[in-house]
Design a protein that fits this description.
The protein is α/β, with parallel strands linked by helices and 265 residues long. The protein contains seven helices and ten strands. A five-stranded parallel sheet has the order 3-2-4-1-5, with helices on both faces. It has a five-stranded mixed sheet with strand order 6-7-10-8-9, with helices on both faces. A hairpin with a 7-residue loop joins strand 8 and strand 9 (198-203). The longest helix has 13 residues, at 59-71. The two termini are 27 Å apart.
């Protein structure tokens, strides 16, 4: 018996891995986080599968369901939104499963940041601008380590993906302006990949009234950084070395082989 912590992606049922879908089809017990995982994600589940929304359950109640499945030798699909490794709340579940000696695996999923970058048609890393993306959250209900406060992170000048902070957008802007300047691009993406998805773009100078006009108060990701609109901020970027005709590498040697190199698993 195995518990599979499955990343269901940001909401679009098509943005789920082949492996995740296969496990959902196979597992006789499915526990899914219904507050953020749409029921359509489970359309491929077996007709006789036991499916339960865990949004109203506490940690102990979830573990009780898993223990019951373990006693019946039934695999469990524990379905979370996005990627389970990013604010997935799987750490405390795995800790208890370790104590109970119950096997588990983690199946990655598409993150909200990846889906939002795709929605915006933007690359979050650009050569000559930044090669770093920082995933963080606003210091509200969950305390942040002091060395990870927004002022400290902003000093890097990297692209920021700020979760769970849209209701505090005015405070976030105040903290970021000294490091990114008022003209730095910002995008706030609401329920990315859901039917009612929406977003607004601007700069640190004007994003607050734009977000309030949209009435985004939750389930939104804040992206900050020059890569979001390098042209508007005079942040020119370089072509990558990957496709530079003057830069040979193992897959594009100066003398091309008759048979192109292939990679097999």
């Amino acid at each position: 018996m195995t518990v599979y912590f499955i990343g269901a992606g940001p909401g679009d049922p098509d943005l789920i891995t082949v492996k995740a879908r296969r496990l959902i089809e196979q597992c006789p017990v499915i526990l899914y986080a219904g507050s953020l995982v749409p029921i359509e994600i489970l359309d491929s589940a077996a007709q006789d599968a036991v499916i339960e929304d865990t949004a109203s359950l506490n940690l102990n109640e979830i573990i009780e369901r898993i223990e019951a499945a373990h006693n019946n030798n039934q695999d469990v699909a524990r379905v979370h939104s996005g990627d389970p490794s990013i604010y997935g709340a799987i750490g405390e579940q795995m800790r208890q499963l370790d104590e109970l000696d119950i096997d588990y695996e983690v199946i990655p999923g598409v993150t909200a940041a990846s889906a939002s970058a795709a929605l915006l048609k933007r690359e979050l890393t650009l050569s000559g601008v930044t090669q770093t993306v920082i995933y963080t959250r606003y210091n509200a209900k969950t305390p942040m380590p002091e060395k990870e406060n927004l002022n400290a992170l902003a000093r890097h000048g990297a692209t920021l993906a700020i979760h769970l902070g849209v209701s505090h957008i005015h405070k976030i802007v105040q903290q970021l302006k000294p490091h990114y300047r008022a003209d730095c691009p910002v995008a706030v993406c609401y329920r990315t990949s859901w039917p009612d998805q929406d977003y607004v773009t601007g700069t640190l100078a004007d994003i607050v009234p734009k977000v309030r006009a949209k009435k985004f108060t939750r389930t939104a990701l804040i992206l900050v950084g020059r890569t979001l609109d390098p042209a508007a901020c005079d942040a020119s970027f370089n072509d990558s070395f990957l496709y530079d005709e003057g830069k040979a590498h193992i897959y594009r040697p100066k003398v091309k082989p008759e048979t192109p190199r292939q990679v097999k698993r």
